[in-house]
Write a structure and sequence with these properties.
Elements (H helix, E strand, L loop, with lengths): L2 H6 L4 H11 L16 E4 L2 E5 L12 H14 L14 H14 L3 E5 L2 H12 L5 E5 L4 H10 L2 E5 L4 H10 L6 E6 L11 H10 L3 E5 L14 H4 L8 E5 L9 E5 L1 H10 L1 H4 L6 H16 L2 H20 L10 E7 L1 H13 L2 E2 L2 E2 L9 E6 L6 H17 L5
C-alpha cells in the first residue's frame, strides 16, 4: 500500500489485517439468532441443535424470569437513567446485591454491567504499580486486561501448576501486595482449577486470593454456588467474581467479598463508576433466577446427566476432548482452518458448534467449543453425536 493511499484512508491497514485473518482460516461471520436461545434454535434461517450457548440451565426463557422482567418494566420503566453513584441505584439493584451475597455466603456483593467489567474493574482497582499479580496462563481475557490496567507487575504461572505458583510466591515476598488469581472453570478447556491447593498457598504467603467463577456459577457447588462452595472454601477466598450472563440467563457480572472490599469498589472500580446501571427488567430477572437456582435443583442434575451422556458419546467415537471436567467440552482438531470447516459442515447438517482458533486458544489447538445444557433432550444429544460422527469421519478427524 502506498503512502498516498494510507493518507487517503488512515484505516487502510485494517484491510491487510482482515486479509491475514482470512488467510489464517480464522474469518467468521456472526451467526444471527432468530427467536429464543434454546437447545434447538434458528440461526441464519436454519434450525440447528445449539451446542454453542452459555445458557447452561435454560433460564433465558424461564417463565418466572420473563414475568419478573415484564413486571419490572410495567412498574419502573425500561432504564435506570444514571450511573449507580449519581441517581441510578434502584431498590432492585440493592436487593440483587444482598441476594447474591447471601447466596455466595459473603458479607457483601456489587453488581457490574458485565462479567468482563467485573474482572477488569476489580483487578485494576485493587492493585497498583507497586504490586504483583500471579495469574494462571489460561485465565480469561478480562483478568488479563484488568491486570494490565492496574500497572502491577504480572507473573504468569503454567496452567494449574501449583508447584510453580509456590515457587513464585517464595521468590516475591518483597512486594507490598500480591494477588493470586485463577478461573474457577476454564472457559475453553472446561477443566477446574485446583482451588484448595492454590487457596492454601495464597493464605500461607499472605496474598490476596481471587477466583473468576463465571463458568462455575450455576454449575458447581450446592445450587450452583461455584467452586468455593464445591471445595468448601467459604471464608478463605477474598474475592469471588461471578456472572449473571451464563447460567443465570440474563446479563451482568458481580463481585463478592468483605463489606470493605465492596465499598471500596463502589468508590474506585471504574466500570461501576462510569457505566449506567442495569435496567429494572435485568435486575428483576436476575433476582428471579436465584430463586429458580435454589428451588429447582433438578436443573443442575439434568445439566450433569446430559453432560455425561454427551462426553461418553464423544469418547466412544474417538474425539479428543482434552481435560474437560465440566459441561464445557472442547473437540480439539488442531489447525484453525480444519476447525472452521468442521464447524461449517456441522452447521450445514443441523448442528451449531462454534469453531475457536488463535488468539482465543493457542496455535495448533483449534477446536469446536461445545456446551451441553440442562434443557437438551437425550434425542437431541444423540442426533448431535451422530452428525458429529458423520462429519468427523468425512474430514478425517476420527477414523
Amino acid at each position: 500500500m502506498s503512502r498516498a493511499t494510507e493518507t487517503r484512508n488512515p484505516l487502510g491497514f485494517l484491510d491487510e489485517a482482515m486479509a491475514q485473518i482470512r488467510a489464517d482460516g480464522l474469518y467468521r461471520t456472526l451467526r444471527v439468532l432468530e427467536g429464543e436461545q434454546k437447545p434447538e434454535a434458528r440461526f441464519d434461517h436454519k434450525d440447528v441443535i445449539n451446542l454453542s450457548s452459555n445458557n447452561y440451565l435454560g433460564l433465558t426463557t424461564h417463565p418466572r424470569l420473563r414475568e419478573a422482567a415484564l413486571d419490572a418494566v410495567r412498574r419502573l420503566g425500561v432504564g435506570s437513567g444514571s450511573v449507580r453513584t449519581i441517581a441510578g441505584t434502584m431498590d432492585l439493584h440493592m436487593e440483587l446485591e444482598r441476594r447474591i451475597a447471601t447466596f455466595k455466603r459473603t458479607e457483601a456483593a456489587v453488581v457490574f454491567q458485565s462479567g468482563f467489567a467485573a474482572n477488569a474493574g476489580t483487578v485494576s482497582a485493587v492493585l497498583g504499580k507497586d504490586d504483583l499479580i500471579l495469574s494462571d496462563e489460561l485465565n480469561h481475557a478480562s483478568i488479563i486486561d484488568g491486570a494490565r490496567l492496574s500497572r502491577a507487575t504480572i507473573k504468569v504461572f503454567p496452567h494449574r501448576d501449583v508447584k510453580a505458583l509456590e515457587r513464585l510466591l517464595e521468590e516475591t515476598s518483597a512486594y507490598p501486595r500480591r494477588l493470586v488469581i485463577t478461573d474457577g472453570v476454564f472457559s475453553m478447556d472446561g477443566d477446574v482449577a485446583p482451588m484448595p491447593a492454590i487457596t492454601a498457598l495464597a493464605r500461607a504467603h499472605g496474598a490476596i486470593m481471587m477466583v473468576d467463577d463465571a463458568h462455575a456459577s450455576g454449575v458447581l457447588g450446592k445450587a450452583g454456588r461455584g467452586t468455593v462452595d464445591h471445595f468448601d472454601l467459604h471464608g478463605q477466598v477474598d474475592i469471588q467474581v461471578g456472572t449473571l450472563s451464563k447460567a443465570i440467563g440474563v446479563l451482568g457480572g458481580y463481585v463478592c467479598g468483605s463489606k470493605t472490599l465492596i465499598e471500596y469498589l463502589y468508590h474506585r472500580a471504574r466500570p461501576f463508576l462510569f457505566s449506567t446501571s442495569h435496567p429494572p427488567a435485568v435486575a428483576a430477572a436476575c433476582l428471579a433466577a436465584f430463586d429458580v437456582l435454589e428451588q429447582e435443583p433438578e436443573r443442575i442434575e439434568r445439566l450433569w446427566s446430559n453432560t455425561k451422556r454427551f462426553k461418553d458419546g464423544l469418547a466412544r467415537l474417538g474425539f479428543d476432548t482434552g481435560i474437560s471436567e465440566t459441561p464445557i467440552t472442547p473437540i480439539i482438531v488442531g489447525e484453525a482452518d480444519l476447525a472452521m470447516r468442521f464447524s461449517d459442515d456441522l452447521f450445514a447438517r443441523g448442528v451449531f458448534a462454534q469453531g475457536i482458533g488463535f488468539p482465543t486458544v493457542a496455535k495448533g489447538r483449534a477446536r469446536l467449543r461445545t456446551i451441553v445444557t440442562a434443557t437438551h433432550t437425550e434425542a437431541e444429544l444423540d442426533r448431535a453425536l451422530s452428525t458429529l460422527e458423520d462429519v468427523g469421519r468425512t474430514l478425517g478427524i476420527i477414523r
